[in-house]
Amino acid sequence: MPCPYDDRFDGDDREMTVIARETLSFFFTFFQRESGLVLDESKTYLIESRLDPLVRAEGLSSIDELRKRIQQETSPVLKKKVIEAMTTNETSFFRDITPFTVLKTTVIPEVVKANQKSRRLRIWSVACSTGQEPYSLAMVVAELAPELQGWDVRILGTDIADKVLDRAQAGVYTQHEVQRGLSVAYLMRFFAQQGDEWAVKPEVKHFVQFRQFNLLTDFSSLGTFDVIFLRNVLIYFDNATKKQILDRMGHALSPGGTLFLGGTETPIGITDQWVRVKLDQGICYKKQRSA
Fold first, then answer.
1. Out of 14, 154, 196, 201, which residue is the most buried by the measure of CB atoms under 10 Å away?
2. Which pLDDT value is given to residue 30?
3. Is residue 43 domain-resident?
4. Which domain does 239 fall in, by range?
5. pTM
């Protein structure tokens, strides 16, 4: 899943640039307003390490000048580049395997029973980065082909950053990327080798669609889902934004739908709309039923 930031400096060992307090304050406010990301002075080094390459690419002299350019320009292009620059994209196939196991053994069989009339399955992978999670979901679906024969199955992958969605849409991964989380059996069954890279096969790819989407906007245009994977995303928002997103997720789920969060994430204490469900092999959440 894409992470707005991590605790490691991923640049070189050069000295940090002194960034004006006015500029830091501007970017802290900018990121929270535009994408919900919460930064403070403890993350100052991330402002530099993520934005300095963009400063050079734009031919600017400093991050302070970048701030002034954003304030002066009405075009959204530069703003979008700044938001994408702050996004690292830590992801892998079948990351934290348990939710995928629960999906296969418990959740999809529940949906198959509940949706016999519509024969429809909808899954949303939120903040999908370069596509490993939605393609992992599609591989689960492909393995359940006999049970889902004749069903309309669609998996939506969304992310705020177009640059990662372009890679996701292509569905082509390096040797290093496919070695992270994929078994040899899955690799040989669901991928085709293209030189030094591996491409997702059509039998998996046709389940998945990708779309640019900001979690701070209205969800209604996306439709409703039986399953939502919102994993390792909420940890980067403040509680008010978490509540807003979780409440909207409730409206985006079909009755009886299932929400998967990251291992350290919980709606408890943030919103009372969700019920924690303990399954044999993991945890998920269901919408609270009205009294």
1. 154
2. 85
3. yes
4. 98-171+202-287
5. 0.81
